[in-house]
Design goal:
The structure is a homodimer of 248-residue chains.
Chain A lengths: L7 E3 L9 E4 L1 H10 L7 E5 L5 E9 L4 E10 L7 E5 L4 H13 L4 E6 L10 H15 L6 E2 L3 E2 H6 L6 E5 L8 H5 L7 E5 L7 H8 L4 E4 L8 H15 L9
Parallel strand pairs in A: 1-3, 6-7, 6-11, 7-8, 7-9, 10-11, 10-12
Antiparallel strand pairs in A: 2-5, 3-4, 4-5
Chain lengths: 248, 248
Amino acid sequence: MTDKAETRLFVEQDLAAGQSLVLSEDHAHFLKNVLRLKEGDVVAFFNGRDGEWYGRVEAMGKRQATAVIDTQSRQQEAEADIWLVFAPIKRARIDFLIEKATELGASSLLPVMTRRTNVERMNLDRLQAHAVEAAEQSERLTVPLVHEPQSLDALMASWDSSRNLMLCDETGTAPPIAEALADAASGAWATLIGPEGGFAEDELDGLRKLPFVRPVSLGPRILRADTAAIVALAVLQALRGEGPRRRS
Amino acid sequence: MTDKAETRLFVEQDLAAGQSLVLSEDHAHFLKNVLRLKEGDVVAFFNGRDGEWYGRVEAMGKRQATAVIDTQSRQQEAEADIWLVFAPIKRARIDFLIEKATELGASSLLPVMTRRTNVERMNLDRLQAHAVEAAEQSERLTVPLVHEPQSLDALMASWDSSRNLMLCDETGTAPPIAEALADAASGAWATLIGPEGGFAEDELDGLRKLPFVRPVSLGPRILRADTAAIVALAVLQALRGEGPRRRS
């Protein structure tokens, strides 16, 4: 099968040659009414476990579509183990943050409640849908899971200390990020972004005392919370020395 | 004067002790109706030339306000000479890009038309206003200028070859960004971001032949144009070794 698939869809089902997939109503609508695909057209599928597979649209009904899986286009590969721990922010910015963190390869997205967090309700389904869409468009083979919110204290109390936690610290006392990560960018990481109002002073003091916390400075300007998250993930990935794209 | 100013405003006028400022209608509205400041309250002002100054609101009318400049709070400092050259993208994303590039210290914002650019009209006044607002909130002492759009060919023909141009290249042939910039992050730079559809093949070929162009890879995932711009600026700033904040 030589056709190149222009569209990638994330599905829950197992993927293997000859497998038949019943697509969700959303996917069926997207393929039929947005992309105007027809029976026989090629789509790529991934599920986070079995790599990426090409399949052909088999039947396209009003509210339902099926596809048959054909050949594997990419093998599943190990991905960076980088969590984003973030205090919820306002709606447009959190949607954006989820999209960018997914594009930048975050493996888990963990909302935490801090002293100054003033966004209380989050639609986790909507956030997870943004992560799926961003993964589909970025050629990732996985989708990061958006976790249930928890308190920062609870998360820190259960933290596996082999995972480094990058603390984006605006107080001017932390070393610049490139210096702080120069010898330590590999391994399991998380980056912690505070709320728009910043961490409370005693929260910062408590965090700095934890053995796995690495305070870093992101430069002399004040960054919004969403910008800080993107910068932290981008620089961490760059210093890990990610290679270029593996298919063109 | 010991009050700390919570608000920073960018103005065009000169700033010096004793100087009286007539504020714009927008600024007057913002101070009076949004922030609910009163006569005597302290605001910080910067103009891109004279550092940052504290001033006191002197009179607050319905549509007009004046302030008197008092003491200098920060001296003007040299900032990184980094341009962002970008093909216009859709409205919400371009607003976001301007905000983030300003936060990340871009000194000039240059829209360029490429072969596959499909956004033709841009409201430069709106984009410039976004840059002003982002500079006010990020504690920058300058505001990047949003230039008139021009063709990529024209910009390349007039390029000063002492300025490196980082080409974010998705074809898989360029070295990873941290490797490409390891010994070269200082000096004058620009980063070039293509449109959502990418550069045309012959555009890329032409760019790669220019002596000042440095192709870099931003990793194995496909990044949206706005993400690519933010990553390029963030990693460049990090590798230049920016110090932390100079005031807390």
